[in-house]
Amino acid sequence: MVAAERRPLRLRLVSLNKRTFPMADEMAKTEEGALAQEFVQFALESGVLRFGQFKTKAGRMSPYFFNAGLFDDGAKLARLAAFYADRLIASGLEFDMIFGPAYKGIPLGATVAAELARRGRNVPFAYNRKEAKDHGEGGTLVGAPLSGRVLIVDDVMSAGTAVRESIAAIRSAGAMPHAVAIALDRQEKATENGIDVDHSAVQYVRQQLGMQVVAIATLDDLLQYLSGRADDELSAHRQGVLDYRARYGAG
């Protein structure tokens, strides 16, 4: 099989004239919403999304928990990568390579790069180590040299620590941290020095760092999913999530 040609990735929807196609935006939003609902169901079926009482890194007691580490077999990872690819293509985001921050971002970035290559768009991939290697090639970066517009792929963004570390590494290599792709946007307030702030980590990256953030699903999508369930046990969790959103929601 001939390897797909490596070239800058340009994924965008076909441009539609809004005067000719007045429903274009609505159709795109409907498709995006359907993808998010399908993803929430997939996360639940995979045991990645759970309900109960879970302590977050910020010390909050959350009524739900999303652990991407439980996408733990080939079939789940392949389907997860397809969700990322679908969302990226629909977003029209342009980028030149993928970076996966240690640790969860490494398999996520690798599988997304593989899925995009399967679809005919082959882009370079790199990741970092938590500690520098003092033998062999050395350093903290592994994979393709960082260059051009770099897309950071991770699972969620809570405090934004992994993204900030990734941004520093990318800039140090002379490349441009361009955008972030995540599985779930929790849409909740970030913490700084142990104090809640009005913005979320995603909002900080968008507004203060000027980077695009693409999420497969959001907390709003999760609430919509719970609202439409006939399963009483599942829908019963909705109020707890609503209460949490009222207390810690951002934006």
- Average pLDDT, rounded to a whole number, is 88
Coarse shape: globular
Distance between the termini: 48 Å
User: Secondary-structure element order, as H and E?
Assistant: EHEEHEEHEEEHEEEHEHHH
Backbone CA Rg: 19 Å
Helix content: 25-40%
Adjacency order of strands in the biggest sheet: 7-6-5-8-9-12
Question: Helical region count?
Answer: 8
Percent of sequence in beta strands: 25-35%
Question: Which spans of ≥5 residues are poorly predicted at pLDDT below 50?
Answer: 1-6, 13-19
Q: How many strands?
A: 12
From the helix content, strand content and strand pairing, which structural class follows? alpha/beta
**Major beta sheet, specifics?**
6 strands, mixed
Comma- or semicolon-separated keywords:
disordered N terminus; two-stranded antiparallel ribbon; 8 helices; 251 residues; six-stranded mixed β-sheet; alpha/beta; single chain; 27% strand
